[in-house]
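WP5 quarterly update. Target: Co-chaperonin GroES. Source organism: Polaribacter reichenbachii. Length: 91 aa.
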Amino acid sequence: MSLNIKPLADRVLVEPAPAETKTASGLIIPDNAKEKPQKGTVVAVGNGKVDEPLTVKVGDTVLYGKYGGTDLKLEGKDYLMMRESDILAII
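Structure tokens (predicted):
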């Protein structure tokens, strides 16, 4: 994937995973009840800070806070721009 965006410093661009449409028991979740996903794939990273190199890399699947990041729409897709410190874990 080639995006014309390069995050600065310790910022990371994440493509959120699609929201779940069914529960584990098979019930269909209506659109207004779907939770905002808290998992996604890193698609671009900044250069980090001088004293703090980045630990995530492009292609990592990450978990982040429910309200973390800034919503962006690029080339018709939804993304989140966030600081690396908003990422909770790499899975």
